[in-house]
Amino acid sequence: MSEYDLRTKKALRQVTLLEYGFGPETMKLRKICPECGRANGAQDTHCTDCGAALPSRTLYDFYLSRHRCCPGCGVAVTSIAEYCPECGARLPKAGVTQREGAAV
Fold it and tell me: Do 7 and 1 form a contact (C-beta atoms < 8 A)?
């Protein structure tokens, strides 16, 4: 890969991080279109790109539904954690535990 290609790749990554960010706060503000894959605002009901109906769940809701979560505070935890790193609660041994009240 040439020096130009590396600079271009780095610039594109920076633009993506600025637009989408990372972490729970950013994920709570996004919905992903099931038709075209475009990220839309959480308040949107239809995709701004293709017009398809958006799911009611945000990207964060989807993330929580796919990961093991602390039943006490709702933070995502690793599969081997015995205690929650956020609130210190003892975690159940097996299966995925969803946060109480989380949208599925």
Answer: no
Name 63's bridge partners: none
Give yes or no for a contact between 102 and 69, defined as CB atoms under 8 angstroms apart.
yes
- CA 45: distance to chain centroid? 18
Residue with tokens 């989380």: 102
- Is 64 within 8 Å of 70 (Cβ atoms)? no
In Å, how far are 1, 28, 40, 46, 76 from 23, measured between CA atoms? 31, 9, 16, 24, 11
Q: Residue type for 91, please?
A: L
Q: What is the pLDDT of residues 35-84, one digit of tens each?
A: 998 889 999 999 999 999 999 999 889 888 888 888 888 888 888 989 99
- The model's pTM: 0.58
In sequence order, what are the residues at sequence separation of 6 or more whose Cβ sits closer than 8 angstroms to the Cβ of residue 103? 56, 57, 61, 65
pLDDT of residue 40: 92
Of the candidates 62, 18, 65, 19, the residue with the CA atom closest to the CA atom of residue 41: 19
